[in-house]
Structure formats: structure tokens, C-alpha cells
Amino acid sequence: xxxxxxxxxxxxxxxxxxxxxxxxxxDDIFCKKHGVTTRxxxxxxxxxxxxxxxxxxxxxxxxFSAEDFSL
Length: 71
Hints:
The protein is mostly beta strands. It contains no helices and three strands. 10% of the residues are buried.
């Protein structure tokens, strides 16, 4: 199922669902519908919450030296 306005190749994950909540102590997800699950799980109640997703950090394009920033 494609998500409107978002990456169409994004895999469903309980981590990004409105019903899931990440555990503070391990990598498990607490789901209101199904109890304790893993990050890779998803169910028919899955609804994407864009505020729960943290984008990947972008790496700098190359190596820089102090001379590159001097005037």
C-alpha cells in the first residue's frame, strides 16, 4: 500500500504506527492492538504517523580541510 505524499517504498513498521510505542529499555514496540511486537511487524490496523519517523542523517559530500574555510 502506497502512502500518499511520502516515500512509496517505505516499509510498514510498528515503530511508525499511531498504535505503537517504542520501549525505553529494548527494541520492542508496545502496540495498543496486539501487545508487544518487533520493529519489523505490522498488522491490518497499521496507520502511518509521520511525526514518529526520524529521517536518516545526510553525510557530507567530501573531506574538508581548514584551508577550505579560510579567506
